[in-house]
Amino acid sequence: LEEERDRGSPLGDFDFTPLHRCQHLHQRLGQSAAFCLHYGEQRLLQLNSDLEQFKPSKGDFRGQYEALFTKIVGFFAIECQVGATAEGLAPPERIARLWSTASEFLSTRLQNWVADGPSLVELQAVAFDVALRCDAVRQYVRDISDLENVLRNVCLKKMKYLLVEKVHKDIESLCEADAESGFSPVTVADLQTWESEVLEVGLLAPGT
Fold first, then answer.
1. What's the longest Cα–Cα distance across the chain?
2. Residue 10 burial (CB < 10 Å; 0-12/13-18/19+)?
3. Closest C-alpha among 67, 163, 68 to residue 124
């Protein structure tokens, strides 16, 4: 546990002693398998409850999503610590199944939100938050490819689109401002004409 704290674990002073004592008691009573099953069922219920409570209000997706992801990081920090200190309670394959459920939920909600059309500023902030929490949860789960794919193939692509759109709008605004000030834009049909027009106003053509 001390090693986990040194790595900046979200567990803080979380005390696993009661769980270990309870497991030991059930082992002495010959009910170890039943206790392991009960523990797994209860942790699945807890995870599903956390996911079901995620109902962000309009305009507050970032805050709600950040809170949920932080809670999930803590959930898997606990599971990995239990798996390392309480034999049979949290085997790697069960943690992997739980993470699959959480990862699918997080990925789907993030992808749906991006499809709803957030602003560039909102998208950049959320993507940055998600990347940070992916780094945190990577300590406890093996595969974060679903979230990485959404970041790469959905969030970044949307950001590029919004950035290009912003540039286009900025150019339009500049052209409108030039037109209002009486500046006559140069219209050219080909590269040669463009170079000659640029040279005529005293600027250098590309490559010269």
1. 96
2. middle
3. 163
pLDDT tens digit string along 51-100?
A: 999 999 878 899 999 999 999 999 999 999 999 999 899 999 999 999 99
Determine if residue 159 is left, alpha or beta; phi over 0 gives left, psi from -120 to 50 gives alpha, anything else beta.
alpha
Tokens 């999930």 belong to residue: 72
pLDDT value, residue 178: 77
Tell the burial category of 81 from Cβ atoms under 10 Å away from its Cβ (0-12, 13-18, 19+). Answer: buried
Within 13 Å of residue 90, how many CA atoms lie on the same side as its CB? Answer: 23
User: Closest Cα partner for 54 from 78, 70, 76, 77?
Assistant: 70
Structure tokens at 175: 């052209």
The continuous run of DSSP H or E covering 83 comes out as helix 61-85
pTM: 0.77
Q: Are 162 and 120 in contact (CB under 8 A)?
A: yes
Cβ burial of 200 (10 Å; 0-12, 13-18, 19+) is exposed
Closest CA to 137 of 70, 62, 44, 64: 70
Distances (CA, A) of 68 to 53, 80, 87, 102, 158: 9, 18, 28, 10, 23
Neighbours of 48 (CB within 10 A): 14
